[in-house]
Amino acid sequence: MWLAAVLAVGDGAVLSHTSAVALWQFLRPIPGPIHVTVSGDGGRKRRRGLRLHRSRTLTPRDITRRHGIAVTIPARTIDDIRGEVEPYLFRRALRQAELAGHRVPHLGRVKRTRSDLELLFLRLCDDHGLPRPVVNHRVHGHRIDFYWPEQRLAVETDSWEYHRGSVAFEDDHARDLELRAHGITTRRYTGDQLEAAPEAVVADLGEALGADS
After folding, report:
1. What sign results for the dihedral spanned by CA atoms 110, 116, 117, 121?
2. Residue 162 has pLDDT above 70, yes or no
């Protein structure tokens, strides 16, 4: 499929963007057209089922072969999908590229937003058949990221950007202690845990949800 798409475009064409990400196995294949990039800004016809990118910056240094298919190198592939996919998918692809030993921008340079963490956590619940919580719910005077009223379970998704420093650390734990006094269990997961160890998070969360069901 990918090889046929590259060959159909002709000489100098390379698999790129989300199609290249899938070929490198940094992400699962994303539904939609196959992405192919060619050097220059013209001279190729559009083809059904393909998304053709014309680039003036594509050089031989940006191209390699994988499984016999001309494809953009990992660093170029990651750069191409920046802003093209949801932020949590971009971070996941970047992490997988790092784990595979490729030279790409360090994951620590890419910041998460609160909305990124919210989307990531809710997608994790949906993908593993866990009940959806209420979001940004106020409980005993505290705004909780995710809350299951029946199970009296609160979950906070933490990131360094939003929980840095000793004051925030103490405030977080004081809030957890107060919620426990009201019979509410609190779980905390970092963004890295949600992305790198989702199975462990799901197992822990499932146990917490089932404990009081």
Report:
1. negative
2. no
